[in-house]
Amino acid sequence: MKEGKYYDKFIKQFLVLIIMAIKTPQILPGEKGYISKKEKTATRKESEKRIKTVQRKKDKIIGKIKLGAKRYRIGRLSITPRKEKKYPIWKYSKKIGEIIVSPENEIELTFKRLGGIGNFKHLIQDADFQLQWAIREQELLMTQEKCFNCSKKISKAAKPNLYHYNMFKIRTDLLEKAAKIPEQVISGKLTIEKGWEKFNDTLEKGNRYYMSLKDTALLCATCAKQKNLNL
Fold this sequence. Notes:
This protein is of the alpha+beta class. Helix content is about 45%, strand content about 15%. The longest helix is centred in the first third of the chain and has 23 residues, at about 35-60. The chain contains six helices and seven strands; from the N terminus they run H-H-E-E-E-E-E-H-E-H-H-E-H. The strands form two sheets. Strands 1, 2, 3, 4 and 5 form a five-stranded antiparallel beta sheet that branches. The chain has a domain at about 120-225.
């Protein structure tokens, strides 16, 4: 019986030694090469951070699209309900467009216009423009007898209604040209910076045309109301 007890005790001691050997690190605190649990955690977190940074950079490599100047950046990726990847495009703190990548890796880019095309007179706060507008109205009152739209006679005492009769065509042409610019960015011919500048400059031609007072004529009060000239 005593031999059995000694045998059991020996086995227990042997198992304890094995467990201690497993748990005891090869390098003890204070020895060269020892790394504490805190240092291991810090190293792991730093490694995870580097991996995430690399992944974010990879996420922002979209086909042949290039940013250009540093003030332009591609924002955080989001996934739409249709499993599309969506990236906002920022210039400083202003969102100027977005990129959408379909599940089939088809890329679509749209720019956001910061302003309108072809303003109404009262929206343009420019004293010289307002003066030139008034001068143009008086010139036409002296030379134009009939409404440009319906040929009704215009009274010299009537309130003049100046009309840009080619504005719709100009606006349509400019919108068509502007719509083709994102394709040049997607193909890599233009950076986002140059593309957005070209996009805005193209649409700004509508405002410059409007303010030039080219292709203008007078309308009667009825036609002016139909075309919302008095808004």
